[in-house]
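Budget justification aside, the reviewers requested a transparent look at the raw inputs and outputs of the sequence design task funded under Objective 1. We therefore reproduce one unedited record. The lines immediately below are the structure tokens for a 277-residue chain.
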């Protein structure tokens, strides 16, 4: 499965690739259960797969919100997923010091949407030499992401992914402008659609972000139709008990049938428009 990174960069696969996992590392049991389940599904459906889970959640609204089970403990679990299950791994970094902790074994470094303009962080991530996935800020246009690509390329790293996750629509909603996907594809190796975070309802009065996972599949279908090459879907065995972003995560038992439908759809889209549409 780890070789799928090179497949993804070269667009050497049919359909789409998947970045998936729970929002955050909560325990070894939940992390391994989720990773193994997604791997089994993706092997069966022949979908390139990269496992994602955050080792810490640095940008929380409330002081009391879950941040981490402990950075070293979480990173050990994440490294275990890579080594024991033979799965490519990504996680997000918030400070340059985070990059030192994952250098040498992480397959893709993710830059969170709120930090998509942080020049020092992006350049430090790019210098590691692995692909950098920059999530487009909720406040940014597709065209403005060209400058994020320039920052990565300034280090000699040309392996760039952009992730669309919607734009702020008032104070408590997001809206996806699907025109951003083909527009951003001019500046990166592939555009990924974040199908779960784009359903969020941020800035609730209780300080906890809401969401609607029933919208995930529709967003994925639309994104594939306009050229997204990757889907980012956070999933959890029991979202209602998750410690972070449970309101928008897809229940794990719904992932396989949804991916099967999306794989069939992507095959038809490729037949009509061509693989590189």
């Amino acid at each position: 499965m780890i070789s799928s990174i090179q497949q993804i960069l070269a667009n050497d696969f049919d359909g789409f690739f998947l970045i998936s996992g729970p929002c955050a590392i909560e325990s070894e049991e939940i992390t391994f259960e989720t990773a193994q389940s997604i791997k089994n599904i993706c092997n069966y459906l022949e979908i390139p797969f990269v496992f994602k889970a955050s080792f810490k959640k640095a940008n929380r609204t409330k002081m009391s919100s879950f941040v981490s089970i402990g950075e070293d403990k979480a990173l050990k679990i994440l490294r275990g997923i890579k080594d024991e299950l033979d799965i490519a791994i990504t996680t997000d970094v918030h400070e340059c010091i985070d990059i030192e902790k994952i250098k040498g074994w992480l397959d893709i470094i993710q830059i969170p949407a709120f930090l998509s303009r942080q020049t020092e962080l992006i350049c430090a991530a790019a210098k590691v030499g692995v692909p950098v996935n920059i999530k487009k800020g909720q406040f940014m246009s597709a065209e403005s992401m060209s400058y994020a690509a320039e920052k990565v390329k300034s280090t000699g790293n040309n392996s760039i992914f952009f992730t669309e996750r919607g734009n702020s629509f008032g104070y408590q909603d997001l809206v996806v402008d699907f025109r951003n996907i083909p527009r951003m594809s001019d500046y990166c190796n592939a555009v990924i659609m974040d199908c779960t975070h784009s359903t969020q309802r941020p800035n609730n009065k209780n300080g906890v972000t809401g969401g609607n996972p029933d919208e995930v599949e529709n967003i994925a279908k639309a994104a594939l139709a306009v050229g997204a090459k990757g889907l980012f879907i956070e999933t959890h065995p029991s979202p209602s008990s998750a410690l972070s972003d449970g309101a928008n995560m897809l229940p794990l038992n719904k992932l396989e049938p949804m991916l099967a439908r999306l794989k069939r759809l992507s095959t038809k889209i490729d037949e009509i428009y061509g693989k590189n549409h």
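The chain has one domain: 4-273. The mean pLDDT is 93. Computational costs for records of this kind are itemized in the attached budget.
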